[in-house]
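Hi all, posting the design record for the shared folder.

TITLE: backbone redesign
STEP: 1 of 1
STRUCTURE INPUT:
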């Protein structure tokens, strides 16, 4: 839907008034009405790297979800303030691993006698607490664009990886990129005693996958891949690695949001694509590439927005920008000092990956 012209004008005016004092970051899953005001757009890796790109900006308005804003706060200086336009913009996957559950899991691994061999690798989509746990235990953060490098690094440090919290990204990377088998992976269920695993299973496993998933990408099925191939002969199926293993195995290409965009930019005119990722991005790409004769469809019949990404809408952005322009710091995301120190260690290990 087209954005309200009055709100567009207000956002423009507030941004102009703030000038260099504000830096707006936008994740690819954001609405069109929001993304038009982003100074930088990107996938989670690019946004983590770019968050620190404007040290002179007093305010960083993060149009994305809570864990991204936390990471931006961790990676920027203390006098830079990170603002999330709607505090309800969380991530259901990140919520699937709490600090207490992960501490309990570490006890289970210790009890089974495997903790010393385990290196934690945590997906960016996790709370600052989980990132701090990761840093404290010698591990690294990864995103969907560097998960392979992160696992390669981790297996140089230890014999096993505890992968948090997305089982699908962990499994897909292990099997597709690292030559492991499905049997090398076990799933730790935080809602069961001992994660639902025996000490023997933990000793035999190479990858211990946390039982988390993305509710948006979890909706794509093998059937949706088969359907689209039947409907559109010659279609290229391109999916995000947060999709289930069977979907990823049936796809032609797999990658992060930034990878998806690059692949479509490089695609020849007349090519056909079915994309398995969030709908705001797929719609934007379909509109952008239609004039070049690239046919882009959504890999599903049902509408599939990320509801929390969508919480950031133009009214919230206008409110945040106007408040800042009037000198009111609203919706600041600030990670406490101790958590920040360990989480930063883990994030910096990721940024230092080759
Ligand atoms: P990327 O942008 O890193 O591909 O991640 C997708 C996602 O789910 C962010 O929440
Ligand atoms: Fe979280 Fe999935 Fe939304 Fe990404 S798309 S923010 S992983 S719920």
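Okay, here is what came back for every position:
SEQUENCE:
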């Amino acid at each position: 839907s087209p954005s309200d012209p009055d709100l567009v004008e207000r956002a423009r005016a507030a941004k102009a008034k703030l000038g260099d004092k504000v830096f707006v970051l936008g994740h690819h899953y954001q609405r069109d009405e929001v993304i038009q005001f982003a100074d930088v757009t990107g996938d989670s890796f690019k946004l983590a790297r770019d968050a620190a790109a404007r040290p002179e900006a007093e305010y960083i308005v993060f149009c994305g979800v809570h864990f991204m804003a936390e990471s931006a706060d961790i990676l920027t200086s203390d006098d830079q303030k990170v603002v999330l336009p709607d505090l309800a913009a969380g991530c259901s996957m990140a919520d699937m691993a709490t600090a207490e559950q992960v501490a309990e899991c570490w006890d289970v691994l210790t009890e089974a006698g495997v903790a010393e061999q385990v290196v934690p690798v945590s997906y960016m989509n996790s709370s600052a607490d989980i990132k701090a746990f990761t840093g404290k235990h010698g591990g690294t953060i990864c995103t969907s664009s560097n998960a392979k490098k992160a696992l390669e690094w981790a297996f140089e440090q230890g014999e096993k990886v505890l992968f948090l919290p997305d089982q699908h990204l962990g499994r897909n990377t292990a099997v597709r990129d690292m030559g492991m088998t499905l049997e090398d992976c076990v799933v730790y269920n935080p809602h069961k005693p001992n994660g639902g695993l025996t000490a023997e299973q933990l000793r035999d496993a190479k990858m211990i996958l946390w039982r988390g998933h993305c509710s948006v990408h979890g909706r794509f099925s093998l059937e949706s891949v088969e359907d689209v191939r039947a409907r559109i002969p010659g279609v290229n199926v391109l999916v995000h690695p947060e999709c289930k293993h069977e979907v990823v195995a049936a796809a032609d290409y797999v990658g992060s949001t930034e990878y998806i965009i690059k692949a479509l930019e490089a695609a020849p005119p007349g090519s056909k694509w079915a994309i398995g990722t969030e709908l705001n991005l797929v719609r934007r790409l379909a509109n952008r590439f239609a004039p070049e004769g690239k046919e882009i469809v959504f890999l599903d019949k049902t509408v599939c927005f990320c509801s929390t990404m969508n919480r950031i809408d133009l009214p919230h952005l206008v409110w945040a920008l106007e408040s800042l322009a009037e000198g009111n710091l609203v919706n600041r995301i600030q990670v406490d000092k101790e958590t920040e120190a360990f989480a930063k260690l883990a994030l910096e290990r990721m940024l230092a990956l080759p």
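COMMENT: The longest helix spans residues 337-351.
Let me know if anyone wants the other runs.
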